[in-house]
Amino acid sequence: MVSEDGASSVGDPDAPLAPGSLLHIGDDTLRVEIAPQAGGRIAQIHYRDVAQLVGPGDGFPAAIAWGSYPMLPWAGRIRHGRFDFAGRQWQLPRNLEGHAIHGVSMWLPWTVEAHDPHSVELSLRLPHDLRWPFGGSARQRIEAGPRHLAMILSVRAGAQAMPVALGWHPWLRKPGRIEFHPSAIYPRDDEGIATRPTVPPTPGPWDDCFVNTREVVVHRDGQRLRLSSDCERWVVYDETAHSTCIEPQTGPADAFNLEPRILEPGESLQAWFRMEWD
Questions:
Q1: Residue 143: in which H helix or E strand, if any?
Q2: Ranges assigned E (strand) in 213-267
Q3: Domains of the chain, residue spans
Q4: Residue 253 phi/psi, 5° resolution?
Q5: Tens digit of pLDDT at every position of the chain (278 positions)
Q6: 185 alpha carbon, distance to own chain's centre
Q7: 99: Cβ contacts below 8 Å, ≥ 6 apart
Q8: pTM to 2 decimals?
Q9: C-alpha span between 123 and 274 (Å, rounded)
Q10: CA–CA separation, 51 vs 74, rounded Å?
């Protein structure tokens, strides 16, 4: 079991995280910078010379607050870092307001498996220690076309079965407006954690998880960006003045307790996320 005081073994979301050496893909229309050493995240996207993300040099250097990073092997908060699995209770290090947030991958360096002018493939061996007691591995592919960015993310269990949820966390520069039509919302309790049952969506501002199967459209600086995914859970965080995060993920926040999904040894879970500019 992971110890209660294991927070020092996992990244601090509020601590600065340098991007390190960047890889570049795309062309003159769509330019993408990728930071393998900083959690395998996209550091910046430029479409027609307009920056799309809050970047590492925008005055918000905290690890949690820039770029677009993969979240795995869980996404969002796990309440108090605790969950039941395989007949016992597990304790993950708590690193944000008493909870465990956004998995472990956003702080770890990813290995570059392939890189060409239009795509990057990265891999990550998940820890088997206090940060994550099950091991396993992850892969992602990021591909840039003339007007789109396609991302595929997967997690594979190792020798042990394990719970899993994955997703993406893009810090989009503040939109003028978004078109978002979810079918339901997970209410948050006094601890700010998602609960069940879901209810009809409520007005923002949001830091909430929704059931959503429709494209999300972002309007900013005269551009129209369409976000789509095979994920049916989307978190929207729009409480900051400089950014809105629109996050597709395979399960809700606190998924290990609310809607657990289990990978048997050697089994994998894969999802895709696409950004497309009109």
A1: strand 137-144
A2: 216-220, 223-229, 233-237, 243-249, 262-263
A3: 6-277
A4: -55, 150
A5: 333 333 334 678 889 899 999 999 999 999 999 999 999 999 999 999 999 999 998 977 789 999 999 999 999 999 999 999 999 999 999 999 999 999 999 999 999 999 999 999 999 999 999 999 999 999 999 999 999 999 999 999 999 999 999 999 999 999 999 999 999 999 999 999 999 999 999 999 999 999 999 999 999 999 999 999 999 999 999 999 999 999 999 999 999 999 999 999 999 999 999 999 99
A6: 19
A7: 77, 78, 79, 80, 81, 191, 193
A8: 0.95
A9: 19
A10: 28
The upper half-sphere exposure of residue 119, i.e. CA atoms within 13 Å in the direction of its Cβ, equals 10
Sort strands 23-26 and 30-35 into parallel, antiparallel or unpaired: antiparallel
Question: What CATH number has the domain spanning 6-277?
Answer: 2.70.98.10
SS3 105: helix
